[in-house]
Amino acid sequence: MTKELPNIAVLGATGVVGREILKILVENNVPYKSIKFLASARSAGSKIEFKGEEHTVIEATPEVFEGINIVLASAGGSTSLKLAPEAAKRGAVFIDNSSAFRMEKDVPLVIAGVNDDDLKLHKGIIANPNCSTSQLMLVLKPLDNHAKIKRLIVSTYQAVSGAGLKAINELTENTKAKMQGEEFKNDAFKYEIAFNVIPQIDVFCENGYTKEEMKVTNETRKILHLDKSVPISCTAVRVPVYKGHSEAVTIEFEKEITPEKVKEILNNAWGVEVMDDISNFVYPTPRHAADKDPVYVGRIRKSIAFDNGIDLFCVADNLRIGAALNTVRLAQKVIEMQLY
Ligand SMILES: NC(=O)c1ccc[n+]([C@@H]2O[C@H](COP(=O)([O-])OP(=O)(O)OC[C@H]3O[C@@H](n4cnc5c(N)ncnc54)[C@H](OP(=O)(O)O)[C@@H]3O)[C@@H](O)[C@H]2O)c1
Question: Is the Cβ atom of 10 under 6 angstroms away from ligand 1?
Fold first, then answer.
């Protein structure tokens, strides 16, 4: 029996990711019966425009989730930790953008189109991977299917929008100050971000990697169901770019695979677009990827460091595939698969 259309709530609707979610709900024409816009007490009562109408933002309290079927959440880890169990207890499926539940055994960590079947295992909470992991999965999954990943090394060049509204404004203000020769007091980042790169995203772990780097490592393993013996290493760097995360990726495969075969596989892969013609200087950049859906891949070449190795460069809009787009796609899958 087909279910009634879901009542949905967007938690964190006033934030950078939340606003992108609202845009994509419209673009993807997601079906629903009713929609609520939730944020903290700070924004409660303010107005949000959606589909040409003004809506009032409601404070997210546990009771607000009564009767809600699907929550699209991007309100930070501590909010999710508090509210996800409350929403799930009331029968909702809570699709979470924060890192709070990603590595929990009972929480599927899913990229739509990569490991959809894992959605069936949900117990009320579904996690959306870290933005750097997300774009990588769409590229790696079809390659892993063909030649099996043996080792993976990733270096990221991450846009400031990955750190929220405050970080976006700081890049602007810092750049203006620098151009005018004025002093600037950085706040969102450990160092000034204008005309700089910062090799630290999130806090350091005991092993010397940052939490962001370990998220890429652990989440990749969980989503691709890779064995513990497959070594994965990541260096995550913040760069003065507004939108679009870039990643230099080296993959060693079990089986031989040529750059031509990689291009053929990725040309046929869902959600991926190959932009690779060095004779005409064609390769992806964040400016190209901003506000678009695909993960763009270029600079595909045989690695000279590993047998059966491939080097490539991939770029995607971190606010879309890295956060909002996958959240909306997951909600669409939950609706299609009647998992609410
Ligand atoms: N930016 C990215 O690329 C990216 C990618 C992947 C995942 N994420 C994750 O998505 C989440 C949001 O990121 P963002 O960049 O959109 O941040 P942001 O611009 O700072 O927005 C935060 C949102 O959360 C709401 N919020 C904060 N505390 C709350 C509370 N106690 N109760 C209810 N709502 C609360 C805020 O509402 P008010 O208006 O009331 O303050 C706002 O709507 C974070 O978990 C982040 O790690 C972000």
Answer: no
291 CB-contact burial (10 Å; exposed 0-12 / middle 13-18 / buried 19+): exposed
Which regions in the chain score pLDDT beneath 70?
none
Give the residue whose CA is nearest to atom 32 of ligand 1. Answer: 40
Decide: pTM greater than 0.90: yes
Amino acid at 144: D
233 beta partners: 153
Q: What is the pLDDT of residue 259?
A: 98
71 and 167 share a domain?
no
Catalytic entry in 122, 234, 245, 314: 245
Domain count along the chain: 2
How crowded is residue 244: how many other Cβ atoms within 10 Å of its Cβ? 29
> Catalytic: which of 131, 225, 234, 314?
131
Quote the mean pLDDT of the chain: 97
pLDDT at 30: 97
* Residues of the domain holding 167: 133-317
DSSP 191: S
CB of 322 closer than 6 angstroms to any ligand 1 atom: yes
Predicted confidence at residue 2, as pLDDT, reads 82
Active site residue 245: yes
Of the chain, the percentage scoring pLDDT greater than 70 comes to: 100
Nearest to 25 by CA among 327, 337, 340: 327
Residue 2 in domain: no
